[in-house]
Every structure is written in C-alpha cells, then in structure tokens.
Amino acid sequence: MSISILIISALITGCAYSFVKGTLSVREYFLSGIENSSLNAELKPIMYDALIKQMKQYGNINIVEDKPSKDTLSAEIKDYKRKEDAYDVSGNILSYVYSINVDFIASSKKISVNTNKIFDAKLSESECKDSIVNESVKALIDKLRGDF
Questions:
Q1: What is the pTM of this model?
Q2: How far apart are CA 120 and CA 96, in angstroms?
Q3: Fold category of 25-146 in CATH
Q4: Which stretches within 1-148 are classed as H helix?
Q5: How far apart are CA 6 and CA 4, in angstroms?
Q6: Which residues on adjacent β-strands are paired with residue 98?
Q7: DSSP β-bridge partners for residue 42
Q8: pLDDT tens digits for range 87-141
Q9: CA-CA distance, 132 to 25, in Å (whole number)?
Q10: In this structure, what are the phi and psi dihedrals at residue 52, rounded to the nearest 5 degrees?
C-alpha cells in the first residue's frame, strides 16, 4: 500500500514539474543562420551566444550547426535602438531604453519578438545589449512553449 502511494506521489510530482517548466516537443534545432539587418554589427555574435546558451539552459534544446534536421531555426535582427529615458535636474542621463526586434523562424513558423527594457545609465552598453538579446531569446522560448 505504501509503495503504491509513493509511486503515485512520484508520478504526480513529476507531472507537475513538467507542466510548470513547459515541455517542448523539439529537442534539437539546426541553426540555419543569423542575419543582422540592424546597424549594430556586434549583435550577431551576441545573438549566436544567447541562442546556444538560453536554448539549452532555459529551453532544454540543443542547437546544432553541423547536421541539418527537420527542425530548423533562424533569426533576423530587424532593429536595435538605444534612447535616453530619464534625466536628473542637471540634465545628466539616468537611464536608457533599449529595444530589439527579431524575427525568428522555428520549423517554418515565423515568430516576431520585440523586447524593450530600461537600464541604468551606469551600465555599459555592452552589458545592456547582452541582457536584451538574452531576454529576446527567452521570449522566443516562451512563445514556443505556448504552441505546445
């Protein structure tokens, strides 16, 4: 009796964890390319690194480049902007709004991700770019989870 309760408890706990985390049916994407249509050349390698890291850590998906599969992934960085957001009384910039627009194509499905984020002016632009690109990849993963 106690063994069956233990098994049922383990099954329920396992199902709940899978449901909360969000399971994707795709375990691997072939990265067919990243195009950067923005005026910021630094974004392409940042996007590449974010796709490799976030898809594995946040989405539990491997990105491969050497063996084409039926599930392909590509990205086009459409636009990137940094704009002053707030000033102090002396006219010094306190914060910036960063935005990035990316069109992903995952297994023939186009997914547009627009990410906006406010950062303190004390942070370097490099740190902000890295953060906003990683957020856009996480938003892609969340949208992919919503489809399954």
A1: 0.79
A2: 7
A3: Double Stranded RNA Binding Domain (3.30.160)
A4: 2-21, 43-57, 125-146
A5: 5
A6: 82, 117
A7: none
A8: 999 999 999 999 999 999 998 899 999 999 999 999 999 999 999 999 999 999 9
A9: 26
A10: -60, -50
